Amino acid sequence: LNAKQTADPYLHFCTEMDDKVKKHNLLVEQLTQAVKNNEIEVYFQPIIDIENNTVAKFESLVRWQNQGQWVSPVEFIPLAEESRVIIPLGELVLIKTCQQIKALEAQGYDQLVFNVNRSLFEFAEYNPERNVWIDIIKSQGVKPSQISFELTESVLAPENTNHLDVLTQLKAAGCLISLDDFGTGYSSLSYLRRFPVDVLKLDKSFIDEIHVDLADEALVRSIIQMSRVLGIKVVAEGVEEYAQLEVLTDAGCDYIQGYYFSKPLPPSQILPFLEQFARDR
Ligand code: C2E
Ligand code: MG
Ligand code: MG
Ligand code: MG
């Protein structure tokens, strides 16, 4: 203990707070610069159609290396929201996704769907009249039907009825809508009736023990059956083991995403993955 601390513990507390605020502000500044300088990367995680045993989709996941250190999106997305950098960041992720789609199209892969994450904040800030995301997709020469926007249940909460306009515009342009992390929010079946959802993504927390926990298995089976009745496709997130894949296949799940098939890949590994998968199937 230094003398200052014993004399005035509050002063010590303030210094610590000050350090945290400084670190936080520095990180926000570094992130802002990274977006401006186009230093944000996007990795792509394959999503497998298990009925046809093909790669059907990819999820775009933002990546940021700050001074040689990877920072998790779980850490920097909240910072991006708070500083509004999430708006240009989200546009950049969409642009890079479109560029990836065009590159694959040139190789003969023109049916793949790319899922792009959008947070509640991005939805709240979106102007459906300007429809910037659709402008980006069209100006990049991409078919809107190759883009699916992933949003969480919070976007569909009753107090956010204005988001229906945004969803309606995106759907009208031909894009798909996926409901991410399904089951972690206030999941309500009525959301699925009121909103134009094409795909539901079962959260990893339901999948983790699906091969050992009968209650989890029963829950997942009934969600899949319900989705089928509503005409909604189901993706299982975070599948790591063969035993999980077996249960999900038997339950009639449509798509699988997870380390069992592949981690998120940098752009250079997409084509090799597609070619390898086609050889092995
Ligand atoms: P998410 O959309 O639910 O994405 C799935 C996360 O699970 C990704 O983490 C992915 O790398 C990870 N994952 C996939 N398969 C497995 C598996 O088998 N095991 C395990 N342990 N993890 C797996 P990541 O890339 O760290 O992203 C975290 C979250 O950050 C995303 O969760 C999403 O909510 C958000 N995020 C990522 N990119 C963007 C973006 O461009 N915009 C916005 N708004 N949010 C993003
Ligand atoms: Mg997602
Ligand atoms: Mg998810
Ligand atoms: Mg998740």
Task: Give keywords.
single chain; 281 residues; alpha/beta; 12 helices; 9 strands; 19% strand; globular; binds ligand C2E; binds magnesium ion; Phosphodiesterase
Helical content stands at: 40-55%
Assembly category: single chain
Distance between the termini: 64 Å
Average pLDDT number: 93
Shape: globular
Instruction: Write the H/E string, N to C.
Output: HHEEEHHEHHEHEHEHHEHEH
Q: How many strand segments? A: 9
Largest sheet: 8 strands, mixed, barrel
Strand-residue proportion: 15-25%
Strand arrangement across the biggest beta sheet: 1-2-4-5-6-7-8-9
Small molecules held by this entry: ligand C2E, magnesium ion
Helix- and strand-based class?
A: alpha/beta
Number of helices: 12
Rg result: 21 Å
| Regions with little confidence, pLDDT below 50 for 5+ residues | none
Domain EAL: 24-278
Protein name: Phosphodiesterase
Please characterize this protein's 3D structure.
With 281 residues, this protein is α/β, with parallel strands linked by helices. The protein contains twelve helices and nine strands. Helix 4 packs parallel to helix 6. It starts with a helix and ends with a helix. The model has no long low-confidence stretch (mean pLDDT 93). Bound molecules: ligand C2E and magnesium ion (3 copies). One magnesium ion is lined by residues 180-181, 201, 237. One magnesium ion (MG) is lined by residues 180-181, 201, 237. This is Phosphodiesterase. Residues 24-278 form the EAL domain.
